[in-house]
Structures are given as structure tokens and as C-alpha cells.
């Protein structure tokens, strides 16, 4: 369907590509999911379904009766795409978007959902009455016509901060549902538990990230990190140089009054500065809090609100950024009550003398705070200690036999767990050559992903499903390429639903360039599990007929255990759908300064409640939806 629409030229709004619009839309903190289609009424208009993080927040109105969230999204899109035509689309807010068993949006079910239920409509009516001093207000809900063309979120990135696969929109009921993946599923009666086995910790293995950076800087030779920034300039920094830069930044932060345990909020334009600042925090015992920079700081943009909320939650943490946006960030003071709001340009710290003494951390010390959206609109800070991050790294290495000889490539933002934990920390641990590109560089030219792989002889890379679809869309351009992709051993697919046909098309298109047929590996994880914790080795290019309804995201890494439970947290049988729960050394201890949400995130016996629905068959996890 996507390819047909592209051929017809219908995949844009006012000349702006649907994929670009939805990519940026889904980076908006209040948006969980989205679905766009073209109306069949001859107007050429589009309908944008939005699943807000919190439906009550989405229903807040302004004095003119318009929805506040709608106006915020409009402002956000207009900032990103000044030429977008606002009269060419409209929004429908829904509580979920249903998916079928193939992972595609179920149009029939979608159109039977009320955009707002009766309680929601009542809230709007009361709000309009109050703001406009009216005696009565009546809102009439009308049915929407079915679309003739549709765009599926599986081609685009999903909720930032999450690493998970989302499947159908199945809702959990008291009676567990058995869904057959194959004939084997109906024959199993084992408890739905998948144990990754014992994590083997090598003798003298680093126990903290401080030990990691020191050992790698000493032993990795001339290896290091290649950064391809948004300017497309490629910069190489060896691990030795990275450590030295971090020491200088540490001195500068100490001079600014930052002490062990203090939080440092990141707002970086350049990945090279992000990484140097991260290791400076590690050396000083500071806690980095990565947040992506806002597209603009001149309005009360959602990303600006996220920064302000995080600053308040993080005990008025110092903000570390690039000099080109420091003044923009400081303008926040003119609109918000932010006393002692300190913003530091990292460029002024590189000239400091390198620190010679370092904070001694314990493996249980807080090492990183990753922000996820909270139900109230304010972010939740996922606490990850050195032990979490080291054990996730060791588990992924043990399961997949990654080595220092691997060459890795990531182009997701570093404030995403996939960028900083899944790839950067692991690869520093290994002392492997790693490449990080600014996301916009690849989004503007998806085939550059493969250019970099060919040039640097990359063995391991990853992306969400939408990225594989972007390459598939450029099939006509492949004939002019001369890549040698035989070097790749892993194309990991995570952060959103893995659509089997998209992955298979990708592999089939690239096998003429020497790419192995077994390189595609669906994965699963989330911020609360220190990023990816499962890897699939059973993805088939040609599945048996009727065998596959959901895609396996694999088995857990050593040290972690998965289980599927009913609503009473009792383990059900393999092949039955239920609530996915996780236990292991990678799991967060909770949310920063948030005991209520922390308590709700765990069962009475200490298992993390992921919020995902799934099932286990022969040890492999299948994600089927969300609770």
C-alpha cells in the first residue's frame, strides 16, 4: 500500500512528506502513536489520528474553545515545516489505534472507535461552558468516512525513550487468550517463563563505567568514535582523546560548582559533545540527564516544558549545551520561574586543565537518568545505576558474541536509550570502532545509512522498522549503487513494531549487494530495562504458511528473566497472551523522586510491569499489544 501511494504521489501534505511529518510528530512528548490517511471526499485533505499521552491533558481547552494540545502540535509542525498548509489536515484524538495480527492498522476497528467517549465529551462541554459563561453546550459526535488511502505507523518511529515492539491493540481480559503462532503453540503446556540463564562475569571485568572508560582508553589503541554531525562533517575521536576531553570538562563543571550526585541536563546539538560530557559526568560522579534540544525556545513548546519540568524535578540541575543554542535556552527565564537557571556552553570547558582526581563510584550508584513521559505530562526519570548498565552490556555480549573487532553504526539520537546505552556504552566497553550519525542526516538520505556501512565495513547496526521501509521506498535508486554489504552480521530492528514484510523486502533488496540473509534480528527493551534485552534468531525470510502472526523478538539476555502473567500476576502457560513482566540486573530500581509511580511499576514480588501484552513460545517472546 505504501509503495502504491508513493507512485501516485499522494504521500505528502502540501509538499511535505508524510514520513517526515510523522517522524517529527512522534517526537512530540505528548504523542504516543499516530496514523495518517488521505480522505476520499475529493478535497485532498488528510486526517491525523493522535493518541495522546494523557487523554485528559489533550482535552484542556483555551478561552476560545480550541484544544490546547492541538494548538501546541500545530505550532510544533509549523516550526518544523513553515510551508505546511494547515487547512489540508485535521486531528482526531483517540485513546488507542488498533492493529491487526499482521501488525497493520485495522481500519474497520479504528473507524468504530469513538474519537472521544461520553465522559470525554462531557469534560469538553463543561470546560466550554465555564470559559465562555454559557448555560448549556452540546457536542455532537459524527461518524468518519473510511479512507481510501492509509499510512501506517509501522513505517515511522514510535514513542521516543521506548525500545519496545508494539503489536496489535489487544486489551487484557480476565480470561487469558491463546493465540497460535504455529501448531507448536497449541501443544505446549509449560509455564510462560523465559530465563536467559546465568550471566558469566569475566574475571577482572569493570564494575563501574569509570573503570570502563579508563581500561578502554588504555587498551583500545587507535580505536574510537566517528561522529557524522548534522553538517555531514565526520569527526574522529579516539578513546584516549575522549577520556582527555572528559577530564577537561570535569574540571570546568567542578569550577561551576557541580558536585558528586548532582544532575546535569544535556541539551546538545552535536553527538561528539554529548559523549564527552557523558564521560565527564561518569568521572565526576555527576548524573547525566539527556534531553533532546527543542526546535525552538521562543514559545512554550512541549520540549521546552519538558526541559523546565525536568529542571525542577532534578533539583535545579545545571544545563550543559552547545554555545550556538545557549542564549536561546536562557530565554526560558523570561517566561518561567526558574531561579538560578544555569546554562553552560561546553565549548568553554574544553580549554580547562584536565582533572587528575576522580570520584570513586560504587556499582549501585546512580549513573544515568533517562526521561520517559509521565501520565500527568511531566516526565518520569528512570534511574539506572552502574550495575544495570554493565550487566546489560555483558548480557548482550554473551548472548550475541559481540567483540572488540565489531564495527558499529547508530544514527538514533543519543538521548534515546538505543544511542547512549544500546550502542555507545556497550561499544566503549568492548573497545570497538563505533560510528554515530545525526538522525537528520540519514532521514534526509536513507541510503547514506548503507553508504556508511559499506565505507566503514560495519558489522552491527540498528534502526526502527520505519527506517527499513525508507530504504525499500528507494528501490529504484539501488541499481546505481556498488555497495559491498557482506560485512554486516546484524541489522537489529527495535523501538517500534517489526512488520515482517518490511523486513523481508529489505533483506531481499540488499542480498544482491552481498548481504547475508540471516542478518535481520528483531529485538525488545525499554528504558526501564536499560534498553534492549531480547534478541531474535528465528526470523525467517520465507515462513511456513500460517506459521507467523506476530514476529518473535527473541530470547532474553543472560541474567534476565521474562514471564507472562494474568491480571492477578500469576504465570500463565506458553502460547497464551498476558502481561509481560521482567526481572533481572538490567531492571531499574524505580523513578527518581517518584515513589508512587515506582510502586505501581512493580509487582508485589518485585517484577517490572512493562505495560506490554505478549506471549512466550519455546522461550521466544512475542509482543502482541499494550495493556
Descriptive account of the structure:
This protein starts with a helix and ends with a strand. It has 627 residues and is α/β, with parallel strands linked by helices. Helix 7 crosses helix 8 (239-255) and helix 16 (465-472) crosses helix 17 (500-510). The longest helix has 17 residues, at 239-255. The chain is built from 18 helices and 27 strands. Mean pLDDT is 84; it is low at 1-10, 142-162 and 164-180. The strands form five sheets. The chain has a 15-stranded mixed beta sheet that branches. A four-stranded mixed beta sheet has the order 5-4-3-6. Strands 12-11-13-14 form a four-stranded parallel beta sheet, with helices on both faces. The protein is globular, with a radius of gyration of 24 Å. Helix content is 29%, strand content 22%. Strand 3 and strand 4 form a beta hairpin.
Uncertain stretches: 1-10, 142-162, 164-180
User: With helices defined by DSSP (H or I, 4 residues minimum), what is the helix count?
Assistant: 18
- Quaternary state reads single chain
Which descriptor suits the 3D outline?
globular
What is the structural class?
alpha/beta
Distance between the first and last residues' Cα: 29 Å
Helix content: 25-40%
Topology:
Layout: H1 2-8, E1 12-13, E2 16-17, H2 18-25, E3 31-38, E4 46-52, H3 55-58, H4 68-80, E5 89-93, H5 107-112, H6 118-132, E6 149-151, E7 177-178, E8 193-195, H7 209-219, E9 224-228, E10 234-238, H8 239-255, E11 263-267, H9 271-284, E12 287-290, H10 302-313, E13 318-321, H11 323-330, E14 343-345, E15 366-373, E16 379-385, H12 386-400, E17 407-410, H13 417-430, E18 433-437, H14 439-444, H15 448-456, E19 460-463, H16 465-472, E20 490-493, H17 500-510, E21 520-526, E22 531-535, E23 552-556, E24 560-565, E25 576-584, H18 595-600, E26 608-617, E27 620-626
Parallel strand pairs: 4-5, 9-18, 11-12, 11-13, 13-14, 17-18, 17-19, 19-20, 20-21
Antiparallel strand pairs: 1-2, 3-4, 3-6, 7-25, 8-24, 9-10, 15-16, 21-22, 22-23, 23-27, 24-25, 25-26, 26-27
